[in-house]
Please model this.
Amino acid sequence: MQKKDLIYVLDFGSQYSHLITRRIREAGVLAELVSPDFDIKKLAEAKGIILSGGPQNLSEKSSLKINKKVFDLGIPILGICYGMQLTAFMQGGKVKAGREREYGSTEVVIKKGSVVLRGLSKNQITWMSHGDQVVKLPKGFTTTATSKNCPIAGMENAKKKIYCLQFHPEVKHTAGGKKIIENFLKITSAKRNWSMKNFINDSVKEIRKTIGNDRAVCALSGGVDSAVAATMVHRAIGKNLTCIYVDTGLMREGETEQIIKTFKQYQKIDLRIINAEAEFLSKLKSVTDPEKKRKIIGELFIRIFEKESKKLGKIKWLVQGTLYPDTIESSKSVGKNAAVIKSHHNAGGLPEKIGFKLSEPLRELYKDEVRKLGKLLKLPDSLTYRQPFPGPGLAIRIIGEVTGEKLNLVRKADKIVCDEIERVGADTQQYLAVLLPVRSVGVQGDARTYGHPIVVRAVTTSDLMTADWAPLPHSLLAKISSRITNEVHGINRVVYDITSKPPGTVEWE
Ligand code: XMP
Model:
């Protein structure tokens, strides 16, 4: 494969570290996330280095630092948030807790003469998330941006090619973020040679070579990742691939049928369907803790998959739709500094110790890159652009204990939410229904009811890392509400979730 120009992103544990890497790739340059103590010899081969944000505080001794020599490599450096504070600290400036913390949208004023902020208008809305700030510039640096509570919101030393920002250019809420990334890439002179076009051919050849005449098995979840991974491997080894789909009973309405249609009929892949609803419900009985639910579902999924794949005979390979962020998050060196918000489960998370060799054709890719592949592989748009659906399924959209009855309620409500939103083509990237365990009094058909509420949640987001609640038209909300209360017996109230992420998350559990 052709050697690519590379940007390394040193990860100090920001929730946005992956976003930085993705933004660089979107601009056509390969970027990888590495730990702050990454080998300096390898760093020296990069076209550019980015220091991410992070939750730490430089006044604490244990705060993450880097090899001082990184600043003398002569490679362009972009320091973001903690990355800026660290640069200031290690280059002889001063960092202190600010009088006021800045979180969310913040206006900054851009000063003239900055290289990395070139072409941006004077007043910029940016995304901030910090308590500490640089209070004294290191020698050779000038201030490039200021905000009300942060007089040094940007600094740079153009001679040493070091550029720093207290705000986050990688987050879409920073209006000029894309331009800033472009400016930085121009400074690095990295070639724009990262694309999905050759990826398929290269990978199919590679898979054919490694798997050879062996047999492989793949767990299909119905999501785009496992579908694209299975399609790539199917192209390489054909009938030697068998797919298994475990119907957990926690899926949305019509989902299993759609999967059969797409894979068995459309792609002609050998697909086995395992109906395991009863087993999942029995294991989830009386469980209310969200993390416990997630773990139980993940583990049972693995056990069932293991049992079914054994029935297939001699299979050597396990195909997984593991994405780049999954490989990084589970690695020891990178991502360990980020707080665990939820333990994610998906069909791509099967452990190696099942006794297979692993084939992970997407392990270098981000989700948007996988969608591009899906399109190139001619998978149906309904699958390639399917809104995200969590591995633990509807179980994490039922607050409290999961029962068959509650699953029916939330499934019906979810279908109404999806149908109505898709019918008008409302601007939202993920939309769902959540069933609450509380009950409230209502009146339906002149009689008193005592039923559960459904929460409707719809968000606008480009990356699911941050999200805004979607301002759906009132007429649409009214239609959803009246349909749910009329058609889903047991629901007498509908509320709309108007929380962004942060502080909320997309799912309720
Ligand atoms: P949160 O709730 O963390 O969700 O804001 C962000 C995105 O991730 C999805 N999600 C999951 N996806 N396995 C998955 O494959 C999981 O366990 C899981 N939990 C949340 C969620 O639907 C949203 O798109």
